[in-house]
Amino acid sequence: MDNDIQRVLYSEAKIQETCKRLGSQLTNVYRSKRPLVVCVLKGAVPFTADLIKRMDVYMDLDFIDVSSYHGGTKSSGTVKLLKDLDTSVAGRDVLFVDDIVDTGKTLVYLQRLLRNRGAASMKVCTLMDKPEARPSDGVKADYVGFQVPNEFLVGYGLDYQGKYRNLPYVGILKPDIYQA
């Protein structure tokens, strides 16, 4: 798999350092609350696992799965709910944890969905933010690990056709891999 990577952007050590920083911030924000941490499947699983270990607060954890890529390299623009939450969000402080905010369509969809279900508050923590990939419509994450370039990234949860999620770092996938 390493041979398919053009360049490593964030090493495993740098990612862990960022998880520690974000975990500390979130501990301060949610110290007197019991947030519902919502991991956006499947890409955010490694990040969520590392992040919540560094949050010194009582919390509940749930998972939601949505798709807009459908196996390609660009968002289709249509978000589809694949797995819903098992926990009610009514009156809860919700913290979305996602691997990357790209076009922002998934984030808008999820925020609308949970607002309609009565969430008391919603914040977004993402490992990576790719602002170049979306229109300037105000979509943004509240807590960001890294601002990333508009490249096709894989590793540490990010995939291409289900592959590369298990890389311990984030790298740029060689274009000839996905343009073939």
Structure report:
Keywords: Cytoplasm, Glycosyltransferase, Magnesium, Metal-binding, Nucleotide-binding, Purine salvage, Transferase. GO terms for molecular function: guanine phosphoribosyltransferase activity; hypoxanthine phosphoribosyltransferase activity; magnesium ion binding; nucleotide binding. Pfam families: Pribosyltran. It catalyses: GMP + diphosphate = guanine + 5-phospho-alpha-D-ribose 1-diphosphate; IMP + diphosphate = hypoxanthine + 5-phospho-alpha-D-ribose 1-diphosphate. Residues 14-161 form the Phosphoribosyltransferase domain. There is one protein chain. The chain has helices spanning 12-30, 45-52, 105-116, 175-178; strands at 5-10, 36-41, 60-67, 80-83, 93-101, 121-129, 143-147, 153-154, 170-173. By secondary structure, the protein is α/β, with parallel strands linked by helices. It has one domain (12-151): Rossmann fold (3-Layer(aba) Sandwich). The longest helix is centred in the first third of the chain and has 19 residues, at 12-30. The two termini are 16 Å apart. The mean pLDDT is 92.
